[in-house]
Amino acid sequence: MKSNKKIGIALSGGGVRGISHLGVLKGLNEAGIYPTKVSGTSAGAIAGAMYCNGYKPEEVLKIIVETNYFKFMRPAISLTGILKMNSVGELFKLYLKHDDFAQLQIPLTVAATDIKKGKVIYFSEGELINPILASSCIPGMFDPIVIDKRHLIDGGVLNNLPVEPLDGICDYVIGVNCNQLPEETNIKNMKSLIERSVIMAMNSNVYSRKSKCDFFIEAPGLGKYGVFDIKKAPELFQAGYDRVQRFIEENPAILELAKDN
């Protein structure tokens, strides 16, 4: 039985680490917990869109492993990015044929950042794929996505856990972060220093929203995985699933969300 409560789930960004969200969703569904609204940033927007479209978490994992959408990216002739995401949009059209928020089975909100105005933009209606691309547009790596003359980049820059679209609408909010950093005693090179610093900054704006969540799920140590480490997809999925099992054991109150009262 699905709960009659309004349950919102906010999914963070985090590159390939976002695959762990699928394991979390699988675990929650097995416990009888189903969202009535989903919000997501970047990888969380992608996982959220596929899930809200009706794909089961295991089906989304299979699609990711088989297609490896990173190979669809093309070089950009631009001063604002080294890659462009247009060809990735063609891939999304294979699985989100309607390209329309209104056609999703579960309402979804996607967060992106307006780089010129320095503010978060939320999308929940109209075309679906371009907002997903914008939300996933890592600054400096990808050309900004232009929607209605707004130049948009990764939503995680300003909001990597978009709980705001769920606040006041849902009875309960579950936040899911996929970037927890293990302690590091030896920073080996500049690359690892920069990567760790970026994840710390992303987590800062996640943790500032933690108090808005009734439940906060975070698989340990996922920050050690690279943003594009697609070969680790099954491992990441399992990490999210395992964390939910443990979380339910430690926080049995979450099972109240699975009951009709």
From TrEMBL:
InterPro entries linked: Acyl_Trfase/lysoPLipase (IPR016035), NTE (IPR050301), PNPLA_dom (IPR002641)
The PNPLA domain, residue ranges: 9-167
Entry-linked Gene3D superfamilies: Cytosolic phospholipase A2 catalytic domain
Location of the motif GXSXG: 40-44
Motif mapping: DGA/G: 154-156
Keywords: Hydrolase, Lipid degradation, Lipid metabolism
The keyword Flavoprotein appears for this protein: no
Motif GXGXXG, residue range(s) on this chain: 13-18
Keyword Lipid metabolism: yes
PANTHER family: NEUROPATHY TARGET ESTERASE/SWISS CHEESE D.MELANOGASTER, SLR0060 PROTEIN
Name of the protein: Patatin-like phospholipase family protein
Lineage, opening ranks: Bacteria, Pseudomonadati, Bacteroidota, Cytophagia, Cytophagales
